[in-house]
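ARCHIVE CARD
CATEGORY: sequence design from structure
SOURCE FIELD: tokenized fold
FIELD CONTENT:
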């Protein structure tokens, strides 16, 4: 294949509306620190559109997960069940406070936490279950919630990739006790860095606000609920600046357009690769009945690690940048030191080495996507 002079990136940050205008408004308004008018607009949008009780913007999804860990009142030695096929922050946020990640295998169809293996991993030390909605595809939340309620456990959804995905008529993030979102530049809705903690248990709202404001009741003071603010709990500076919130607000205003565009790209991949997938050359993403994805990413599951690497190198020579995903946490040095394995890791070990993610970004045009599709077909024809 002749290399192309025009490269197709894996991801491309983008502007979609009034990002720069709103940033200028924040600067001219004289309020750059957090929890200003743009922050409040974002909170209201998330609460209304996702159907959650309370939302708080954070510096990152990692920060939101750390807040969730604090709100779970974890003690050293407590255990948190999660997949190993996930980003390091899923485990790090809980290990930071002394909890032990317990890694459970994934389903071979959705690559999500296998709900059938959770109960066998529960011990008297288990406190939390953390389902990760990989690629914006929902975990089986009804089963997971039922298991959690049976054993008196919290559920924290890692919905970093899942903004505006649906599960049986409910938005992801609105089902567990808490959830964490990401607005990193690789996500559907972006603010460079950024995230949000979502809460559905009203008993958590007041303390979450205190943790968010460095352990003080500063937010209550500004609402006139107390006559002065002071240090009342542990906490940190989790709230982002108004510049981040202003950029994010412009993206949220256009969220439906962004998601619709990404879904069209996703569906075109699905349709154009249906022939090769039908012949068993590779597998493509699976979405169960009653669930919807949000066009976050598109991957191929190749027959072997070697075939994955060959295709990735072939695409790179054509100027197309594809990438694999997570190195399983249970196989990492920190995962082995700080966590434990709670089930066989058959599918995690197998699938993580065969997965290849293709370019998918908001500004991707038909010509670019056609090049990717034709290059994949060319690889297998040759």
């Amino acid at each position: 294949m002749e290399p192309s002079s025009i490269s197709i990136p894996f991801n491309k940050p983008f502007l979609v509306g009034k990002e720069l205008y709103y940033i200028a408004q924040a600067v001219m308004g004289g309020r750059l620190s957090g929890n200003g008018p743009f922050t409040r607009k974002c909170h209201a949008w998330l609460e209304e559109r996702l159907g959650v009780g309370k939302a708080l913007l954070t510096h990152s999804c990692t920060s939101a997960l750390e807040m969730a860990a604090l709100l779970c009142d974890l003690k050293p030695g407590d255990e948190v069940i999660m997949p190993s096929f996930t980003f390091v922050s899923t485990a790090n946020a809980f290990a930071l406070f002394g909890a032990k990640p317990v890694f459970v295998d994934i389903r071979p169809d959705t690559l999500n936490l296998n709900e059938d293996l959770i109960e066998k991993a529960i011990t008297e030390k288990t406190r939390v279950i953390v389902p990760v909605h990989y690629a914006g595809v929902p975990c089986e939340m009804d089963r997971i919630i039922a298991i959690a309620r049976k054993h008196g456990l919290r559920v924290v959804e890692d919905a970093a990739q899942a903004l505006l995905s649906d599960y049986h008529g409910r938005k992801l993030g609105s089902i567990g006790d808490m959830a964490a979102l990401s607005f990193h530049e690789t996500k559907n809705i972006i603010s460079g860095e950024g995230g949000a903690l979502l809460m559905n248990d009203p008993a958590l709202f007041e303390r979450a606000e205190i943790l968010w404001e460095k352990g003080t009741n500063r937010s209550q003071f500004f609402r006139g609920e107390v006559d002065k603010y002071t240090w009342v709990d542990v906490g940190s500076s989790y709230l982002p600046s108004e510049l981040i919130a202003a950029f994010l607000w412009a993206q949220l205003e256009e969220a439906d357009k962004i998601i619709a565009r990404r879904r069209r790209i996703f569906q075109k991949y699905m349709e154009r690769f249906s022939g090769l997938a039908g012949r068993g050359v590779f597998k493509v993403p699976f979405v169960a009945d009653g669930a919807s994805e949000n066009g976050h990413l598109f991957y191929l599951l190749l027959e072997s690690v070697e075939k994955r690497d060959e295709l990735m190198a072939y695409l790179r020579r054509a100027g197309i940048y594809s990438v694999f995903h997570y190195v399983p946490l249970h196989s990492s040095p920190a995962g082995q030191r700080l966590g434990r394995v709670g089930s066989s890791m058959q599918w995690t070990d197998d699938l993580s080495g065969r997965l290849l993610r293709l370019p998918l970004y908001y500004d991707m045009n038909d010509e670019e996507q056609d090049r990717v599709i034709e290059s994949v077909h060319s690889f297998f024809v040759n």
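CARD ANNOTATION: The first strand starts at residue 54 and ends at 58. The chain is about 40% helix and 15% strand.
SHELF: design records, drawer C
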